[in-house]
């Protein structure tokens, strides 16, 4: 009897967490997502519980969609909170991916243009500079300047 009640409470936990993730993603509440994703990523057993009652795609696809459609508005001010929010969501996705050996298809990603799919499929690979697109070169230049240019502060 106690075990059955415990299973019901775990199922309720998953359903509530799953619904909350979906709602926060739909409303693009990235600060709240950051807090929730950070808490879940720090507790790997919570990931186990979530997968007992749901499929990875149902849980993670909304998070992947948020990252794939991420836009930074110049009027947001500081970059740091934006990076933290994006990073926390990505960390939770990667925690699931590496803990359970998931692929982009397992996450419900169908588009080869997906940021998350590209990261999973090509992220650990290095590429020669001459193989980068103009957009990728521009992003890389921006990162280098941001990391090493002491003149801008």
Question: Could you describe the 3D structure shown?
Answer:
There is one protein chain. The chain is mainly α. The protein is built from 7 helices and no strands. The protein has helices at 2-26, 30-41, 44-52, 56-68, 80-100, 115-122, 134-148. Helix 1 (2-26) packs across helix 3, helix 1 runs parallel beside helix 4 and helix 2 runs parallel beside helix 5 (80-100). It is globular and about 50 Å long.
Based on secondary structure, the structural category is mainly alpha
Unreliable residue stretches:
1-8
- If helices are DSSP runs of H or I spanning 4 or more residues, what is the number of helices? 7
The H-and-E topology, N to C, reads as HHHHHHH
The fraction of residues in strands falls at: under 5%
Q: How many distinct beta strands?
A: 0
Shape: globular
> Biggest sheet, open or closed, and with what strands and sense?
none
Helix content: 55-70%
Ends distance: 62 Å
Q: Taking all residues together, what is the mean pLDDT?
A: 82
Which oligomeric form is depicted? single chain
Radius of gyration using CA atoms only: 18 Å
Would you summarize the structure shown here?
This protein is mostly helical. It has helices at 2-26, 30-41, 44-52, 56-68, 80-100, 115-122, 134-148.
Descriptive key words:
7 helices; 67% helix; globular; disordered N terminus
């Amino acid at each position: 009897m106690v075990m059955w009640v415990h299973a019901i409470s775990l199922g309720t936990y998953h359903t509530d967490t799953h619904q909350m993730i979906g709602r926060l993603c739909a409303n693009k509440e990235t600060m709240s997502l950051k807090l929730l994703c950070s808490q879940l990523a720090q507790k790997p057993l919570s990931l186990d519980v979530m997968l007992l009652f749901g499929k990875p795609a149902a849980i993670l696809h909304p998070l992947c969609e948020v990252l794939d459609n991420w836009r930074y508005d110049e009027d947001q001010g500081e970059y740091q909170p934006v990076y933290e929010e994006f990073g926390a969501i990505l960390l939770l996705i990667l925690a699931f991916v590496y803990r359970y050996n998931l692929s982009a298809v397992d996450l419900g990603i169908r588009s080869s243009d997906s940021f998350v799919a590209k990261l999973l499929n090509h992220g650990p690979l290095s590429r020669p500079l001459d193989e980068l697109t103009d957009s990728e070169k521009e992003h890389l230049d921006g990162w280098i300047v941001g990391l090493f240019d002491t003149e801008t502060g």
